[in-house]
Q: What sequence folds into this?
């Protein structure tokens, strides 16, 4: 049961999916753990990452899957331009967004 959402990274709207855990089996006092995922340098979230996200969710871990700026459903230009610096910035912004998800323990978020 994925949910579409967005977050902002350096002024650009980034598209993301939140796939909540199917149970609270791994929940702690602060909430459930969460994994943040994006495809390699040039891929997009619809290139097979949902299968992994659903596997994490079945195990009791939320998943936050996103497209980098300029890729997939995210805004930003130039399009399809690989920049490790910008992608690292997007990961930082995604971490902030994931830590704010309802039910997620902000101290148990990983890449």
A:
């Amino acid at each position: 049961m994925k949910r579409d959402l967005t977050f902002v990274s350096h002024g650009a709207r980034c598209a993301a999916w939140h796939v909540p855990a199917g149970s609270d089996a791994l929940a702690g006092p602060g909430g459930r753990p969460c994994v943040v995922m994006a495809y390699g340098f040039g891929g997009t979230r619809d290139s097979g990452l949902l299968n992994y996200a659903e596997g994490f969710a079945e195990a009791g871990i939320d998943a936050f899957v996103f497209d980098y700026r300029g890729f997939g459903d995210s805004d930003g230009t130039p399009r399809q331009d690989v920049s490790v610096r910008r992608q690292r910035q997007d990961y930082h912004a995604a971490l902030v967004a994931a830590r704010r998800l309802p039910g997620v323990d902000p101290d148990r978020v990983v890449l």
User: Anything to note?
Assistant: The longest strand covers residues 12-19. Helices lie at 49-58, 84-99. Residues 84-99 form the longest helix (16 residues). Residues 65 and 82 are 18 Å apart (CA to CA).
